[in-house]
Amino acid sequence: MASYILKRLLLMLPTLLGVLLVTFVVIQFVPGGPVEQMVAQLQGRDSGGEGAASAGAGYRGRQGLDPQRIEEIKKLYGFDKPAPQRFWDMLKSFARLDLGTSFYQRKDVWQLIKEKLPVSISLGLWTFFISYLVAVPLGVAKAVRAGTRFDFVSTLVVLVGYAIPGFVLGVALLVVFGGQLQWFPLRGLTSSNWEQLGWGARIVDYLWHITLPLIAMVLGSFAVTTMLTKNSFLEEIRKQYVLTARAKGLDERKVLWKHVMRNALIPIITGFPSAFIGAFFAGSLLIETLFSLDGLGLLSYESVIRRDYPVVLGTLFLFTLIGLVTKLISDLCYVLVDPRVKFD
């Protein structure tokens, strides 16, 4: 086990390096970087501000900026150095867990992540717990009643929910329950006077705001877990040890929950670590944008659009590292759940 863990940890280094290298190379060829955006802004300001000045006043809006000014802008953003040196400097900073500073917000990337993380945690954790608390019992019930009308109707409902995109469902919820009926707020995670409310009122206000985004995110996540649970239970129910337990006269509920449940939930439980950790960081861009929730999904999107490379690469490094570690934990959970698994 120790050698396996060490091997996996060593394999993380080239994987992480490859992800950063590919992204860094792609960035070099993407047009409209921070230097180009700054030059365009300065040219627009020059042409718009003193455009009516005489030729003797030094108007250069059509001629562009001086090469010296452009070099100063490149130096400001660190683009005065060769690409290999910039990549090496970035790796050294990441090794010190220094994710850099945003070009546009002038804040440390760590600070930006901390500011946006509460929204993503709220959406992710609620989605995780509600999905599993509903999907697993529903999958068990479908397996026990396989082939019945309940199984058919529940499968139809789950698949229809899976087929509806969360963004489309969110728009419908906003129009009906937020606009026409006005039962729920249209935006934000809390009210503007949330700080002045008592603890009980704060909880009610928070749940009131998060209901619609959660419905839009959760409905589509039931299908995979529900069908996986159902198929796992059906596979275990048909095995010989279940027939033997029933032949010995054991109670059906005891057979189901003590023997079948333990083996059928192995593929479900081993996915818990990745799903749980992913809940902290897997923000939904469309849902956050639709409900005006300022989370990590919106931060990543805006960073890509604005070519805020420190935020793009810093969050990519952090999320990739967490994903690799979580994948290792998920694999190790197989041994904890099923001792028959041997990695050697």
Walk me through this protein's architecture.
With 344 residues, the protein is mainly alpha-helical. It folds into two domains: 33-96, no CATH class; 109-337, MetI-like fold, CATH 1.10.3720.10. It has helices spanning 2-29, 34-49, 67-77, 83-95, 109-144, 149-163, 166-180, 199-218, 222-237, 240-247, 252-264, 266-269, 272-281, 285-290, 296-305, 309-337. Helix 5 (109-144) crosses helix 9 (222-237). The longest helix has 36 residues, at 109-144. It is globular. The termini are close together. Mean pLDDT is 80; it is low at 46-63.
Number of helices: 16
What's the CATH architecture name of the largest domain? Orthogonal Bundle
Low-confidence stretches: 46-63
Structural class: mainly alpha
CATH superfamily of the largest domain: MetI-like
The gyration radius over C-alpha positions equals: 27 Å
CATH domain class of the largest domain: Mainly Alpha
> What is the CATH topology classification name of the largest domain?
MetI-like fold
- Termini gap: 8 Å
Largest sheet: none
Mean pLDDT: 80
SSE arrangement, N to C: HHHHHHHHHHHHHHHH
What count of domains describes the coordinates? 2
Q: What is the tally of beta strands?
A: 0
Descriptors:
MetI-like fold; globular; mainly alpha; 0% strand; 16 helices; 2 domains; single chain; 344 residues; 73% helix
Summarize the structure.
The chain is mainly α. The chain has 16 helices and no strands. Helix content is 73%, strand content 0%.
